Amino acid sequence: MGRAWLFGSNVNTDVITPGRYNLTTDPAEMARFCFCEVRPEFPKQVKPGDFIVAGEHFGSGSSRESAPLAIQACGICAVIAPSFARIFYRNAINVGLALCLTPTQGIQDGDELEWNKERGLIVNLTQGIEFPIEKLPDFVLAIRRAGGIIAYLNQHGSRLPEIK
Amino acid sequence: MRAQTLSEKIFSRKLGQQVRAGQTVLAEVDWILSHDTTTPLAIQSYEKLKQADFHAEKVILVFDHIVPAPHPQGAALHRRIFKFAQEQGISHLHYGEGICHQLLAELGYVTPGALIIGADSHTCTAGAFGAFATGMGSTDIAVAWATGQSWFRVPETIRVEVRGALPAYLGPKDLILQIVKQVGTTGAAYRALEFGGPTIDAFDMPQRMTLCNLAIEMGGKAGLIAADRATLDYLRPRVSAGMYGQTPLQSLYPDPGAHYEQVLGVDATALVPQVALPHGLEETVDVDQVAGLKLDQVFIGTCTNGRFEDFQMAAQILASHTVAPNLRLICTPASREVYLQMIKSGVAETLLRAGALLTNPGCGPCLGRHQGVLAEGERCLSTMNRNFRGRMGSPQAEIYLAGPAVAAASAIKGVISDPREV
């Protein structure tokens, strides 16, 4: 359970981790400037278990992996959006940041949310509404279960997951 | 045989079986590109692998984003990459020679039909050569270093058919800004864009590269143009015999009757100079709508518009003029080859005499890290591909995007100007 941090549509990775701060390979350091320009309070007030809720095409623009790494290091439980920009989508899967594909209309900033993994739902506890999550492809889920692509390769003899 | 798009054709050849849009496949890649700001995280991911091969022959490392290093942190990242490159025996290493996307073309790495991944979103530029080239993140690059492979969803394709000749002082940047306006900044998400038609057939390779460069600004996975005679003529002297990964140079066209999700027609003759307004590419207007806006800086360069032809256009306009007082004109060649061409042709001298600041080849201030970052309240007109908030420095600065002709005319006047009126 955690609060919703609401962002708009087509949020680009320059907004998530601004380029001029991108000089580190330490995720904890990246977390300090996550969304620092559009929501300066975000990196200070975000708590483990919180959710990022956004509109279409979240994570557009640059390929920088600092974007999902910073979000993950902030303790975000999952990013919830109706669609993701493809490079961000891959990067998030690869580093083990959970993404939930679902419509997000109606969710307000600060709403308390819960991810019911068994039933595949996002539950808006504040408003008493449930959103079904679109199922990701099996090989993507296999990577997520492993905790990211590097962990997957380490657990599976350096072989990439089979794609059916 | 089912008629295929360029993307379907390239993946089918790679896999040795016919695949179609929508299928997800695991494929051997030809080149694995990364640069000085994405490589350190790739090294970090690679070093977490318990056991891994290293496909050094496929790896291309380019130092272009912050060269030479502007601060100790940048220098430390560079050192880390050099050390890794030495340990792994990476021979395709380029420091300060130019922007990675430009070098892929100039040094003959890209060939028609090649499958290229790069830890940079503008890797799509190489699609101008009939290759499938797409951006990924650092960990995908690390995985490809180790396995030689990556997974792909073969994308659906949006075909853009362009007819008519571009009017004087207009270039491919005006055309692609217009196309972005029509498709939308998310309109090509997860899709490939295929550019074709008589206008594109008549374009040279630098012009084609500018078009494909902005595929990602529509959310596109790749931007492709058929490999024709112009492609092969450009590449032939650049491809060294026996170089790893070189498939024989052959033309590559989509099949007639291939399935396109959407076909968009554009008439180039009707175009006027385009300017994208801050802070995204959502809003692009004809230049007259923003003409007269005062500028603090004009930047000509990047993987979008940092080629010789772009500076030649700028020099043509700037000849016998000077840069407006209190305005900085920064010119950053996309590569050493471009720089040398500028010197030999006199373009460099024209620009310098006009008052331009000519930097070493690389990404320049596009990343907001050096060589011309913006202060709060400043306004810049740039030939780059992104005008996101904070991209060139302060989030309180404004970035307008246009082609080199608008940039040069604006540098003379000190305000956004129509090159046809200077």
**What is the third-level CATH name, the topology of the largest domain in chain A?**
Aconitase, domain 4
Number of strands of chain A: 7
**Biggest interface, chains and residue tallies:** A-B, 43 and 55 residues
Count of distinct structural domains of chain A: 2
Q: Can you say what the CATH homologous superfamily of the largest domain in chain A is?
A: Aconitase, domain 4
Describe this structure in words.
The complex is a heterodimer of chains A (164) and B (422). By secondary structure, chain A is of the alpha/beta class. Chain A has two domains: 2-133, Aconitase, domain 4; 135-164, no CATH class. In chain A, 29% of the residues lie in helices and 17% in strands. Chain A has helices at residues 13-16, 27-31, 42-45, 66-73, 86-95, 138-146, 149-155, and strands at residues 2-6, 51-53, 78-81, 99-101, 112-116, 121-124, 129-132. In chain A, strands 4-3-2-1-5-6-7 form a seven-stranded mixed beta sheet, with helices on one face. In chain A, α5 (86-95) links the parallel β3 and β4 (99-101). In chain A, α6 (138-146) crosses α7 (149-155). The longest helix of chain A is centred in the middle third of the chain and has 10 residues, at 86-95. The radius of gyration of chain A is 15 Å and the shape is globular. The model of chain A has no long low-confidence stretch (mean pLDDT 95). With 422 residues, chain B is α/β, with parallel strands linked by helices. Chain B has two domains: 6-267, 2-Layer Sandwich (Aconitase, domain 3); 273-421, Aconitase, domain 3, CATH 3.30.499. Chain B has a five-stranded parallel beta sheet. The longest helix of chain B is centred in the first third of the chain and has 17 residues, at 72-88.
